[in-house]
Amino acid sequence: MQRPRFELPEALVMEILSKLPVKSLTRFNCVCKYWCSSFQTPHFISNNYHNNLENNNLNLLLSRCDGNTFQPYLSQLSNEKDQNYIVKQNIHLPFFEDDSPSVYGACHGLLCLFDSSKDKAAIWNPSTREFKILPPSSIQRPPYFSPFEETYLTLDDVSFNDAAFGFDSKTDDYKFIRFVTLTFVNSEEEYAHPDFIYQVELYSLRSNSWKEIPYPDYNPNGKTLGNNYVDGICYWKTETGAYLDFRGLILSFDMRNDKFSVLPIPEFVGSFPEYYVDLLVFNGSLGAIVYPLQRIDTSFDLWVTSEGVWTKQFNIKSIPGVVHPLGFGKNGDLFLRDANDEVLVFDASTQELKELEINTYLDHHRFAISLHTYLESLVHINGIQEVEKYVIRQPTRNASNEY
């Protein structure tokens, strides 16, 4: 006698599938048309992302630069402590040639890669392997009339500086913002004194275009650790005053209304010029790692803000030989770089410091080393699948992180 066929309700099937990794869902696209179309709905994409968020399924990328070939690449690390954060694969970025791109985000699993030396940027979903090159800026850069020299100056250089990538929930749009410096000179003078004009350019994924917005009263300075975007707002360090009257500030930009504002850096920092203050995202909130400028053994204070109130999370005392923090991984592990450019990880729960067996002998560009985290996501960006002239993935040869 044939047993009756038991079928689960489609809603329950979709709920179960939404808990699977993106790699599995990509394979299941070919099971049937209904599944394929369901995986592309905003509801399913949101459920899958929030399941990863609840389970803290962080993926780790170490941004690096090959000191021999000068090729930029990303090392994808395991996110399990028992594997000692080994390198699972190296991802090369031929699109950026011999320039090491800055990485912004992640926002809903998307990263923005930006070459600050050129007008070159791309949005990338490392989970679905979708890659979208941003169009060149169409914003006008008109001639500049110098009242001091009483003549029009020639545009000599365009440089791109600090940036951020985030989401505008008001228009359901992903945006990329960058600061631009225009250098003008008098071409008729042999030793011309440069004049600088500043712009802010904002890219919209929805319109696939750029626009200019008013420049704020403050210039961002100093890089952030990994992500500088939290809940619709981007953050940078800035400053005001001379050395003896020096004050650190936080410049913010709201993606929902395209407006800048300024926040004070709290008093816990102490004498600002004597300390490094690195902004970062910690457990979904804006945080700041504070550590002394002059030191032999480095101690770190982590502060996190919630509704404008800063709270000290923990202090790490006297780590010898550490040069710079890189950011946080899973379960509050703090990644660090030492004087020999080796990557270390500090376990806050056990107070243990471990050296990761990650070869950095090719990483002669120490400031190109940075850590980035993202959650898997099915978000579409109207791009193309990774191709070798843009992205090349190479699995590591063995578990000792050789490549």
Automatic annotation (TrEMBL):
InterPro entries in the cross-refs: F-box-assoc_dom_typ1, F-box-assoc_interact_dom, F-box-like_dom_sf, F-box_dom, SCF_F-box_component
Record domain F-box associated beta-propeller type: where: 96-381
Pfam name, any one: F-box
Domain F-box: 7-44
Source superkingdom: Eukaryota
SUPFAM superfamilies: F-box domain
Protein name: F-box domain-containing protein
Organism: Gossypium raimondii
